[in-house]
Amino acid sequence: AQSVTQLDSQVPVFEEAPVELRCNYSSSVSVYLFWYVQYPNQGLQLLLKYLSGSTLVESINGFEAEFNKSQTSFHLRKPSVHISDTAEYFCAVSDGGATNKLIFGTGTLLAVQP
Amino acid sequence: NAGVTQTPKFRVLKTGQSMTLLCAQDMNHEYMYWYRQDPGMGLRLIHYSVGEGTTAKGEVPDGYNVSRLKKQNFLLGLESAAPSQTSVYFCASSWLQETQYFGPGTRLLVL
User: Fold this and answer.
1) Per residue in A63-111, pLDDT tens?
2) What is the distance between the alpha carbons of residues A45 and A60, in angstroms, rounded to a whole number?
3) Could you give the percent of chain A with pLDDT greater than 70?
4) Quick one: closest CA in A to B55, which residue?
5) How does the average pLDDT of chain A come out, rounded?
6) What residues of A are in contact with residue B35 (Cβ under 8 Å)?
7) Contact B103 A43 (CB under 8 A)
C-alpha cells in the first residue's frame, strides 16, 4: 500500500525567506508524485508533478521539487516566498495505475509573515 | 470551460436527513472522484468512477453512495446524515491517468 507523510503541519516563515516543505512517500511500485496548493476557501490546484524524466520539476511561480528515489522524498522548495504564497500544500502519490487514485498527505500550512 | 463545478456550496443538515451533492465537469474526462477533507487528515477518497455507469469504493465509502449515469456528472448521496459526515467534500476529474482537476468544494454541516 502507498502512503504519504508530511511531517510539518505548519511552517511559519518571513517574507522573502527560503522555505522547504517536506514530503516522504512509501510505495512498492513506481510512483507519480504531485504537489497541490489550496488557498483559503478554495479547491486544490496542481502546483507541479513528477511523472518521469528529470528529477527536478518546477512550477510557474517559482516553486520546485526534487524526486529522490533513494530517500523516497519529494520536498518542495522556494528560494524567496511572498505573502501570497500563504496556503495549504498537499503532497500526493499515485501509482499511475488504471484508476489513477491519489493518496494525499495530511498537508502543510505555509504561513508567510511580513 | 467551467472546469469542475459542485452544487451546493454549503449545506446544513440535521442528523438522519438525506441529500445529494452534484459534481459536473465539462472537460470530457473519463475518471471522476469524491474526496472528503477533514482537519489534520488531508483528503481521503470516498468513491470514484472510471467511466459512465461504473463506480467503485475508495478509502472511506461507508455512509455514502454514488452514481455516474452521465459521463459529465458524478453524484454523491448521503442517505442518513450523521455528525461524523460534517466535512468539506471535493470532487475531481481526470482524463485517464492524467492530472486530477478539483472543484471548489461543498461545506457540509450535520447537526
Assistant:
1) 999 999 899 999 999 999 999 999 999 999 987 777 888 999 999 999 9
2) 13
3) 100
4) A99
5) 92
6) 104
7) yes
